[in-house]
TrEMBL record, chain A:
Residues 1-27 form the signal peptide. It comes from Bradyrhizobium campsiandrae. Gene3D superfamilies: Cytochrome c-like domain. This is Sulfur oxidation c-type cytochrome SoxX. NCBIfam families: thiosulf_SoxX. Keywords: Heme, Iron, Metal-binding, Signal. Residues 29-118 form the Cytochrome c domain. PROSITE patterns: CYTC (PS51007). InterPro entries: Cyt_c-like_dom, Cyt_c-like_dom_sf, Thiosulf_SoxX. Pfam families: Cytochrom_C.
TrEMBL record, chain B:
Residues 181-287 form the Cytochrome c domain. Residues 1-28 form the signal peptide. Belongs to the SoxA family. It comes from Bradyrhizobium campsiandrae. The lineage of its organism: Bacteria, Pseudomonadati, Pseudomonadota, Alphaproteobacteria, Hyphomicrobiales. Keywords: Electron transport, Heme, Iron, Metal-binding, Periplasm, Signal, Transferase, Transport. It holds the Pfam family SoxA-TsdA_cyt-c. PROSITE patterns: CYTC (PS51007). This is SoxAX cytochrome complex subunit A. It catalyses: L-cysteinyl-[SoxY protein] + thiosulfate + 2 Fe(III)-[cytochrome c] = S-sulfosulfanyl-L-cysteinyl-[SoxY protein] + 2 Fe(II)-[cytochrome c] + 2 H(+); S-sulfanyl-L-cysteinyl-[SoxY protein] + thiosulfate + 2 Fe(III)-[cytochrome c] = S-(2-sulfodisulfanyl)-L-cysteinyl-[SoxY protein] + 2 Fe(II)-[cytochrome c] + 2 H(+). It is found in: Periplasm. Heterodimer of SoxA and SoxX.
Length: 118, 287
């Protein structure tokens, strides 16, 4: 009986958090964080293979990363590519960042936010 | 009855051939006979880079990039490996404490023989590389072995490669199941993905030669050992085959093996055999 109101309070809190996540100021900081992770040699190191706006000395192994929001309107597609691209293409050079725990789920999420601005 | 079985067998074979032809040729060598393997391996690169002269594949990244090639040819007037080469020549001629020399350990006094290494030693049942043979020569003559990745070893192999320039790689696989196994093992090592980044040697040197990985241009796997050892500006010094293998493994966050570990010996055997017919060009210089 007493559990019910507690549960709904928790739900309310979650809804409030979700609202916060959609807040532009919060979103902007994850974009910056995502860019940092993508360029960091010890983390995403995406420039090893991709041309990305704002990054120096890019490699040419993968395609230039741009217009990604148009190509992948659903952000879960981008997250899946980062988590393990060998699922789509078993021969790919792209490392399975999520599966091999090079990046955490939150880090992948932040990079996806950044990718959607390209 | 017999005819039906024959027909069945025939169509099964046809299906297999069709399958083999249809499967994507990302893996350059996927047959079981080493000679056929080598041919398929070479053809993969010849077809992928029709503009590159066959004997040019031995020049690593320079075979893939005209600008880099021009800069390199200019540098060849004062090659950065010259110091190592002179040191190697002198070391090679200097007797050990017991009065013997390196020449006593090798066929033809060690001159012009780089193209025959590594070879399969049927007594030991393993692959013997030139670096290994040099250290065994030292130890047999009461001298301490050299580090496999440092200057002295690179100087000696630089001199031995230099006296063999232009000779065609000529690796034999003797009629010994263990030799065949060593070749297969090296090939397996070369194509197996490893480490956190999930790369195989082939990811970089078969799938992506000529591409830039950051600022470096990837060398093709065909003839990739013919120019060894190399001077690299990035190392500000010389590096042996052992050093290059270890660097490639550790740069891709894979755990490198010990120099001259069995797998490295086998992968060297594989890569050298599939380069048969291409000239020795070592020592090399790299950016």
């Amino acid at each position: 009986m007493t559990a019910y109101p507690r549960k709904s309070a928790l739900l309310l809190a979650l809804v409030a958090l979700a609202g916060l996540a959609a807040h532009p100021a919060w979103a902007q900081s994850t974009v910056a964080e995502g860019q940092k992770l993508a360029f960091d040699r010890g983390k995403g190191n995406c420039l090893t293979c991709h041309v990305i706006k704002g990054g120096d000395l890019p490699g040419t192994i993968g395609p230039e990363l741009k217009d990604l929001k148009a190509k992948y309107p659903d952000r879960s597609e981008l997250a899946a590519i980062l988590f393990d691209e060998t699922k789509r293409n078993p021969q790919t050079m792209m490392p399975p960042f999520g599966r091999n725990r090079i990046l955490t789920e939150q880090e992948i999420d932040a990079i996806v936010d950044f990718l959607q601005t390209l | 009855m017999k005819l039906r079985i024959l027909l069945l067998l025939g169509s099964a074979c046809a299906a297999l051939v069709a399958f083999a032809l249809a499967s994507p040729r990302v893996i350059a060598a996927d047959t079981v006979d080493p000679a056929t393997d080598a041919k398929a391996f070479q053809n993969f690169f010849f077809q992928k880079f029709p503009g590159v002269k066959h004997e040019d594949f031995v020049n690593g990244p320079y075979s893939m990039n005209e600008d880099m090639k021009r800069q390199w040819l200019e540098k060849e007037e004062f090659p950065p490996y010259e110091f190592a080469l002179d040191a190697g020549k002198e070391m090679f001629a200097t007797p050990f404490k017991n009065g013997k020399t390196y020449a006593d350990c090798f066929p033809n006094g060690g001159i012009g023989i780089r193209q025959n290494y590594p070879y399969f030693d049927s007594k030991e049942g393993k692959v013997v590389t030139l670096e290994l043979a040099l250290n065994r020569c030292r130890e047999a003559n009461g001298e301490a072995p050299y580090s496999y990745v440092k200057d002295e070893m690179a100087s000696l192999t630089a001199y031995m490669a230099f006296t063999s320039r232009g000779k065609k790689m000529d690796i034999k696989i003797p009629d010994d199941p263990r030799a065949r196994e060593a070749f297969e093992n090296g090939k397996r090592y070369f194509y197996t993905r490893r480490g956190q980044l999930n790369f195989s040697c082939a990811s970089c040197h078969v799938q992506s030669p000529g591409e830039r990985i950051r600022a470096e241009v990837l060398a093709p796997a065909l003839g990739i050992l013919n120019a060894m050892p190399i001077y690299r500006s990035e190392w500000s010094g010389m590096g042996t085959i052992s050093r290059r293998f270890i660097t490639c493994n550790s740069q891709t966050r894979a755990v490198p093996l010990e120099p001259q570990a069995d797998e490295y010996r086998d992968v060297e055997y594989f890569l050298s055999y599939v380069a048969n017919g291409l000239p020795i060009s070592g020592p090399g210089a790299r950016p």
